[in-house]
Amino acid sequence: MNTIVKSLLDPNTCMTNIKNAAEIIKAGGLVAFPTETVYGLGANALDVEACAKVYAVKGRPSDNPLIMHITDEMTLGGIAKNVPDTAIKLMDTFWPGSLTVILQKDEAVKSDFDTVAVRVPKTMWARLLIHHAGVPIAAPSANLSGRPSPTTAAHVLEDLGGNVDMILDGGACDVGLESTVIDCSDGTPTILRPGAVTREMIEDLIGSVNMVYEVLGDEAPKSPGMKYKHYSPNARVTVVIGDTEKVAAKLEELASSSDKKTRVITAKDMGGNHEAIAANLFDILRQCDELGLGEVFIEGVEEEGLGVAIMNRLKKAASYNIIKV
Ligand code: TXA
Ligand code: MG
């Protein structure tokens, strides 16, 4: 298949490209598109065959459900039912934005799950695409399963080129990490994946929530996505956390004693502050593969605010190989 790449950055052609992409979605095809978090691999969420193609193209296990992307809260009818007040408060406050809410599924939606994950992306292009397609768009991150999520159209092309109908190029994603996932389908809301909408922001609004996003030992994961290996470059990754100077010394020591092609990556190299690190992280992990590295030593960040999401992705990239100094 020839994958068409179309830019959204030229205001003269942007709408034509979005409308053409919407036609592809309506016809059961696949379109990768930018959101503020990461690029999504979109299909008509109500078309079972189109969704099956998403799984096939990504190499995604079939027990890992997709997020439905909609234009606004008003279009939840026929998708979710028994929506609790806490979920409504969250949606009113954080939509459009980096928050995915898990709700009880309406019977009208055909899937093997009792619940449904929904999100309204902040990027206007994404909402225009959904609007013109006239259907909810199911979109996982547009990477091959197990690879870092894509934050540029080039990343998508690298993983899925030749296997999707179209890629809409809107430049680099602002946030760079996938949305926060919160389960509001039953009882106390539970954060299943940390993201840019932090636990503090959520608790300020609706009070105390649970947070279960790491599966330890033989526990059954609450979110299927938790049990799969994620974000891993081919290189073995070691994350070092602690006092800045001690970390710098440890990173150098580890790199100099390695017999593989290595690279040290400090927080400063990744952009310094949490926002910049989040935006650059997946691109940096992908570069490790391009450079053919055998081993990388990365400085971790403090697990506070957005740092929780950054460390969650880093820990997974490192397969929990963390050194504290
Ligand atoms: O930022 C994002 O959320 C991006 C953009 C494209 O919107 N999408 C994304 O989708 O990251 P994906 O499929 O890569 O991650 C969705 C996560 C997975 O871990 C999945 O297991 C979980 O959400 N999930 C989806 N539906 C669920 C459900 N009904 N119950 C529990 N977990 C669910
Ligand atoms: Mg993903």
Can you describe this structure?
There is one protein chain. The chain has 325 residues and is of the alpha/beta class. The protein has nine helices and 16 strands. It has helices at residues 14-26, 48-58, 85-94, 124-133, 153-160, 199-206, 244-256, 274-290, 306-317; strands at 4-7, 31-33, 40-44, 67-69, 80-81, 99-105, 115-119, 137-138, 166-169, 180-183, 190-193, 210-211, 236-241, 262-265, 295-299, 322-324. Strands 1, 2, 3, 4, 5, 6, 7, 8, 9, 10, 11 and 12 form a twelve-stranded mixed sheet that branches. Helix 1 (14-26) crosses helix 4 and helix 8 (274-290) runs parallel beside helix 9 (306-317). The radius of gyration is 20 Å and the shape is globular. The model has no long low-confidence stretch (mean pLDDT 94). Bound molecules: threonylcarbamoyladenylate and magnesium ion. Residues 35, 37-38, 40, 64-67, 100, 102, 113, 115-117, 119, 121, 139-141, 178-179, 181, 192-193, 223-225 line the site of threonylcarbamoyladenylate.
